[in-house]
Design a protein that fits this description.
By secondary structure, the chain is of the alpha/beta class. The chain has helices spanning 41-49, 92-99, 111-117, 133-145, 163-176, 189-192; strands spanning 2-12, 15-26, 30-34, 56-63, 66-67, 77-80, 151-155, 181-185, 197-200. A 5-stranded parallel sheet has the order 6-7-8-3-9, with helices on both faces. Helix 4 runs parallel beside helix 5 (163-176). The two termini are 29 Å apart.
Length: 206
Amino acid sequence: MKVSLTDAGKRFNRDWIFRHFTYTFQENSSYAIIGPNGSGKSTLLQVLSGAMQASEGKCEWTIGPGQVANEDIYSNVAICAPYLELVEEMTLREFLEFHIHFKRWLPTVDSASIVAIIGLQEAVNKQIRYYSSGMKQRVKLAQAFFSDTPVLFLDEPCTSLDTAGVELYHGLVVQYSRNRLVIVSSNDEVEYNFCTEKINVMDYKQ
């Protein structure tokens, strides 16, 4: 699995968020997209995920010798991001069971073990709308890390997490990001200190 950008750029109105971006993200590797707030990290991640089209250039996904069609990208990627909403009218148990209709879990986990790993056993039958922001972030991490996909995108993954939550995040990285392509968008080194490659969006502003 690899994701390649070729001379890619994205703009809103007349403002270029990034431009002339050429890079290949390879499987079994971890990358950090860094830069100050408002620099375009999340926009770049959305272009890579297929959620947003580039204004120029190309974004291509390939598995082995074959290219992945745009409509099939979704099934190959799991995302944790502040702008993605949970179904808050559901309980956690209902939400996890609902999720597997779209993406199956990794073969080593099921809904019950996921609840235990993220430490929300006592809240499993409570509607998510009554969760704290940190509890909601744990659920977002769970639906990303435990989805059986070759690619994992993490946009500011420690948002709203306390110390225990950050420790949980790093544990998930160690246990569940092996053999995957992982891309982290962040300006906080705590979130991406495990990444082997770092890409600064500010280098692609011209």
